[in-house]
């Protein structure tokens, strides 16, 4: 038995299909079948039942899957420890997040990590939700801060951070012309959004998935055929120029609200929200540096929520904050 066999087995179980596992691993299907057959022969038990629908675990397979995941965690932890020893970066943590989350968290995270844990080296990568998910799945990052629409619970350990409110964002300059009817409003009903041209990413992105879900649940079809690059900053420039509106959380636009460049109308009836999660891979054991960073992430999220930069309901009970820490967050 070797790590390749264990990896092939666990991916096959996750995908419930040898063909799907072959696509995921970019390996020929017969090669996976051969490795699984060798594994069953060595274990002296049938682990998988194969049918035209895919594969399912036998009773022996269920027992083996639990131990296989533990073994893979141990192998990964050992590799990480040896790599850290080799590179001298025992405190390095790779964090991935979306641009809207990066906008509200990154500076405060860097400040707090430098202040509380100067031995921890923080490396932040920013990209769309599907890229963040793929980075975590391929061990290119250690921790992902992403949305519930883009997590896989059977391969990720997840911890809720905040149920954020969603807003219709309008450029203040554009209110005087195209969007004059929105100038004095603080909230907007979801069905009213269908009256406006919206800049929305495709349903490959977590926000696109969220909008599609609300359209389905409300039977309200929104207008989102307007050209949009999918880049947050580009979209906000379009909004400020009056070329459309966006649906975003306050984390993405609080800095523009403070300077008076945009206004945010809370989306209600139904209230539009989504959950932000912190996720790690189930195949990786958390290092001490990862645990330290996870603690800092929650502290910073709580601080930004309290400041009003990130409006919504926390998914956890924040630890008491010292005056020094509160000052560092809200200065």
Automatic annotation (TrEMBL):
Keyword hit for Lipoprotein: no
Parts forming coiled coils: none
Molecular function GO terms recorded: DNA binding; DNA-binding transcription factor activity
SUPFAM superfamilies linked to this entry: Periplasmic binding protein-like II, Winged helix' DNA-binding domain
Keyword tags: DNA-binding, Transcription, Transcription regulation
Domain HTH lysR-type: 1-58
Listed GO CC annotations: cytosol
InterPro entries per record: HTH-type_LysR_regulators, LysR_HTH_N, LysR_subst-bd, WH-like_DNA-bd_sf, WH_DNA-bd_sf
Transcription regulation as UniProt keyword: yes
Family: Belongs to the LysR transcriptional regulatory family.
Protein name: LysR family transcriptional regulator
Species, as recorded: Salinimonas sediminis
